[in-house]
Amino acid sequence: MKIWMLCACLLSACQPPRATVATSDAGVSMRAPQDGASGGAQDDAGDAPSPAKGGGGDKAASDADKIGSAHVLADRAARAKVVIRARLVSFEGGSKYVWQVVEPLEVIKNETPFAFDAPFRVANYSWDGSVPEGISTLYLEPYGGGDNVWRLLDGSSSKGISHADAFKDAQGRVGCMAWRGGCLDKPQALPRCDSSLKPAPMQEILDNRDTLVGKPVAVVGPLNSGAGCTEMGCSDDNPCCNRCTGTAFLGQAGERGYTSLQLHDAAGEPLIECKGDESLLCCEVEAKGQEVVVQGTLVHTKSYPSGYALQDAVLCAP
Known about the structure:
By secondary structure, the protein is mainly beta. Helices cover 10% and strands 37% of the residues. The chain has six helices and 17 strands. The strands form three sheets. A five-stranded mixed barrel has the order 4-5-6-8-7. A five-stranded mixed barrel has the order 11-12-13-17-16. A three-stranded antiparallel sheet has the order 1-2-3, with no helix packed on it. The radius of gyration is 22 Å and the shape is elongated.
């Protein structure tokens, strides 16, 4: 019997949905949510958290006072519907737009009915940076026609962010993840496989792929990860300005031909997500070349490089 539980996240009560993990004596099966981070404007919106609406009240005078503070650029604040000081909680990635979860610390201007009293998602164009680590001032506008969905002013980090107070090392450089103690969340531990399970080597499965497609298999092989990163030109004092997202797979990174298997959930979505920067990639399950056993149905896909995946996959440690 599978026991369902939520993957650990930094602010689990308030963040957008994360992958769920099912554990049993047989292994771990991770269920990834639908990706709301790519596609067109409305499709990119995804399911955002909905902080309670707040009444308008007499806020104009106090907002005007705050806009004159040291952490605000008045010309940008005049154009934005919302101006807040916020801390980056997590980076979700995306294609046309990248999504980030931020925690509001101070509401400086608010011309909307929303209270901004809980973490929420913010988008901006993927080719124009992202919300930096630490605390910064964000200038926001409604996005996508959705209720309580936001993007940076003009969809741009260069116009929608100011006064960043990022984490820095002793030399004053903005901290890469590897400098700041590594991954925020510990990877999910895999249970031991049942002693009666007899998995086949991955290459044996791939060599017989045409006859095994559509059938349940048990495979042993190395678990690795791959990722793509944004391609901003990072400065010497912020060498890890790019964000990276990817997935874990069975096989060796960089090898060509039928040498790897993608890992999918029951819906055909990536099973194990990985996020980080250029210094470190953090996966929901550790994926550093260690051998694992995966049970699932072999399916043909169009994904590079192998074109094959294990669907509804369950992992365990041999």
